[in-house]
Amino acid sequence: MPSEYNFKHIEKKWQKYWYNNNIFECTEDPEMQKFYALIEFPYPSGAGLHLGHIKAFTSMEIIARKKRLEGYNVLFPIGYDAFGLPTENYAMHVKKHPRVVTDENIKQFKEQLQSVGYSFCWNRTVDTTDPHFYKWTQWIFLKLFEKGLAYKSHTNVNFCPSCKVVLANEESQDGICDRCGSEIVQKEKDVWFLKIREYADKLLDGLNDVNFPERIKIEQQNWIGKSTGAEITFKVKCDNESYDIPVYTTRPDTIFGATFLVVSPEHPILEKFADKIINAKEILSYRDIAKNKKEFDRVNVNKDKTGVEVKGLHAINPATGKAIPIFTADYVMLGYGTGAIMAVPAHDQRDWDFAKKYNLPIIEVIKGGDIEKEAYAAKIGGTMVNSGFLDGLTVKQAIEKIIKFLEEKGLGFAKTDFKMKDWAFNRQRYWGEPIPIINCPHCGQVPVPYDQLPLKLPDLKNIAPSKTAESPLSKCKKWLKTKCPICSSDATRETDTMPQWAGSSWYFLRYMSPFDENYAVNPDAYNYWGQVDWYNGGMEHVTRHLIYSRFWNHFLYDIGVVKFREPYLRRSAQGLILGADGEKMSKSRGNTVNTLDVINTYGADVLRTFILFIGDYEKPAPWQADGIKGCVRFLSKVWNLVDILCDDCNTSDLNLDALIKKVDEDYENIKFNTAIAALMSALNTIYARGKISKLEFKTILLLLNPVAPHITSELYLNIFNEYIEKATFPKFDESKLLFNTVEIPVQEAGKLRGRVIVPVDSEESFVLNAISELGLFKDKDILKTVYVKNRIINLITKPKS
RNA sequence: GCCGAAAUGGUGGAAUGGCAGACGCGGCGGACUCAAAAUCCGCAGAAGAUUAUCUUCGUGUGGGUUCAAGUCCCACUUUCGGCACCA
After folding, report:
1. What is the tally of helices (H) and strands (E) in chain A?
2. For strand B, is any atom closer than 7 Å to the CB of A357?
């Protein structure tokens, strides 16, 4: 009689064995096939592990353990993405240094992760705040700078006028300061950008080469937002001066309907002709109002269009040669296209609204709509009218012809544009990687020499954000003041730090050679591990981390650091774990579940099993605490299988090959819930018959091992006298997947009427014979039969005449 | 507004176009127990009938394709996620 399953004792025992003996550490071994399984490394906040981490990590944990049993050399690393706001704010709150807080949090994370029994390669752990790590983050930045992909430019930062502090976007949701609730204003500042737009096409193309879920590809495509159109020059004549306003449009065919221009309130033409514009004062005050509008209002689609005519200036429509008025309006954004549009009110609803409000002409140039009622946004397909030499053409033909026309006149050209903006690569905060640039009064922006990396963060006592919109680093004069590496003049360091997303943009490469002092990633190690085979993470990172890290990898490919353009071969994304009420877990809702409580009450194996069993891995699922009992019962049934183990019993009611196939394929297809269900079913069969063979036991332990490694390791060692990690994941025999007989449902016009049991692969006549023996359809004539071998038979009948 | 995902018993969820509700939870009945917990056995979508059985209905709504539709097509409704005056 075995003892009751004491998970506390057994789980601790195995964790000790795994971690003290480095069971999961791996080294490059050319004899073995590699497999690189990656999870998004956690941000080590003081709150510790939550269920979201567990769900995210457990999937790759299953894959990693399974691949090891299948004989792969598995890299399944862990690290910490530790720079960032929460740590910094918490550190200030408790009056400790962020370094200290980070170290404490990492220690806690490690303990908690190990209490779940994860098979990470612990001795490759990376920490983005470690100078040995961020040395290479800075190195990559300098490479980007060298290639002209990092530049400093004017932009707005979120500034809280009450706290007098620059806020990160996540601290200023909806234009409200997180800390004091005041309205954020935009403050102009020179900050760093990375030219991710230059990689937009490559990032789009690369999606063809990777196995990502379609929803992720589509989201990235939408984020990049490629559009094709034309840039067209509208000449502005004012006295004797001539000035070009380029506009971007996706519909150059509608140019004959362009009855006015609209420029954004920040457009340079307004400054340039300030003295020529009759109502310059009105224009400037409109600009100031627009500038101070909360982003939220400016972006609100439903609000009334406002704008001001720029009096004294006119633009020439290059197709018609006619002068048209110029307006400024805040529905035109400086940051997209050229910051100016040609307004075609007949065929664009926003322009139509604006034209109606300001009583501007609306000229129909594509037939088909009723432009008195609303704009007719004809897709490719209409016929051109009122369009001079374009009349009668299709939209497609018109686009070609007008672009040719404009090119010949030097007034336009075909152009693609992207919604994605360049990556604002800066924060005015302490706890981040210092940007390794020196500002020299003579030489300008000079990179810190490579041999002086890492440029370490100075040890500041006061890390509070500055009230002057400068980084706290600017207060550290000793650090700030330096010599120019080129001309040795007195110079100052760049004081902005890198954003949250810097370290995570390349950490997966560092895992391959975490301690290499000479390379970001050691070439030999890279040649072995190459691409990440499978990367699991959250949907919330699709348009941030996932796109940033693809960008950096593309760049590192272009400069020869890595051999593959795309970093990740396969990506999956877990669905959220929701509270029992079906809402997002949050402290304010009071529907959170403490991970450690679950482990203490039920054990890590139960937690792991339940979080996978709860529903489709990729869909959101509510945590229903009652449901966990099912997994407790399941594992205790596994434990008690020993009681009914028989040496040489012959069992035929459980098809082991089918079970192996089911579980194997379900794991690979991220259908963990049905894999576990299949194992539960197998146990039901076994307990109903009351005995289990050794082969069945062995198979079930191995199949279950990735999900519940503690209990299966213990049982395997006890019964088979061998460590389970030395065993091999079971394989199935394709030829043994079916039993000798099969039950065929008998339908009449699609409705179930009965069942017959026939030998596998029976012919139709045999099945029909079996049906007539049953006595079904005695009083009916069978008009037609549809028979699918081993599956179903459907009969079309009519009453006997 | 645009893009994406989803809607199945009391409940979480299963179902390569082929027996809807696998596997769980909860529920009900029984066994064990002085009793309870735990455990084990059994029942269980809804309605109806001539009730050992059988029939009809049933996967958000309305149509369609098919021998056969939760699954495919068309049109909607609702919920969730993302983007959003993107020219």
Report:
1. 24, 29
2. no
Neighbours of A83 (CB within 10 A): 30
Q: For residue A454, is the peptide bond before it cis, meaning its omega torsion is within 30 degrees of 0?
A: yes
Confidence of residue A1 (pLDDT cuts 50, 70, 90): very low
A7-20 helix and A604-613 helix, angle to the nearest 10 degrees: 90
**What is the sign of the dihedral through the CA atoms of A560, A565, A570 and A575?**
positive
What's the CA–C1' distance between A649 and B40, in Å?
23
Q: Which nucleotide is nearest to A748 (CA to C1')?
A: B67
The whole-angstrom separation of Cα A543 and Cα A219 is 7
| β-pair partners for A243 | A236
Backbone angles phi, psi at A610, to 5 degrees: -65, -40
What is d(CA A192, CA A423) in angstroms, rounded to the nearest whole number?
8
A685 touches strand B (CB under 7 A): no
Cβ A655 vs Cβ A710: under 8 Å: no
A738 touches strand B (CB under 7 A): no
The CA–C1' separation of A795 and B61, in angstroms, is 31
Q: Is the dihedral of CA A160, A162, A163, A165 positive or negative?
A: positive
Rounded distance, CA A608 to CA A598, Å?
Answer: 10
**ipTM of the complex in this document:** 0.95
Measured at the alpha carbon of residue A527, what is the angle toward residues A526 and A528, in degrees to the nearest 5?
90
Q: How far is the CA of A350 from the C1' of B14 (A)?
A: 48
With CA atoms as reference, report the closest residue to A247 among A327, A364, A190.
A327
DSSP A234: E
Instruction: Specify the DSSP element, H or E, that contains A421.
Output: none
pLDDT in tens, A223-281: 999 999 999 999 997 777 789 999 999 999 999 999 999 999 989 999 888 888 999 89
- Which pLDDT band, with edges at 50, 70 and 90, does A41 fall under? very high
Task: Name the nt closest to A338 by C-alpha to C1'.
Answer: B87
CA A607 – CA A596 distance, rounded (Å): 10
User: What is the greatest pairwise CA distance in chain A?
Assistant: 110
Angular region, A755: left φ>0, alpha ψ -120 to 50, beta rest: beta
Residues 164-223 of A with CB under 7 A from strand B: 214-215, 218-219, 222-223
Strand ranges inside A595-681, DSSP E: 621-622, 645-646
Cβ within 7 Å of strand B: which of A 410-469?
417, 419
pLDDT for A145 beyond 90? yes
How far is the C-alpha of A641 from the C-alpha of A663, rounded, in Å?
A: 19
Q: What is the distance between the alpha carbons of residues A346 and A259, in angstroms, rounded to a whole number?
A: 9
Task: Name the one residue in this structure whose structure tokens are 């026939």.
Answer: A758
Cβ of A243 < 7 Å from strand B? no
Which amino acid is present at A453?
L
What is the pTM assigned to this prediction?
0.94
C-beta of residue A338 within 8 angstroms of C-beta of residue A261:
no
Please provide the DSSP assignment of A15-40 as one string.
HHHHHHTTTT-----TTS-EEEEEEP
* A340: nearest nucleotide, CA–C1' criterion: B87
Which nt has its C1' nearest the CA of A687? B40
Q: In this predicted model, what pLDDT tens digit does every residue of A66-119 receive, in sequence order?
A: 999 999 999 999 999 999 888 998 999 999 999 999 999 999 999 999 999 999
Strand partners, A261: A326, A342
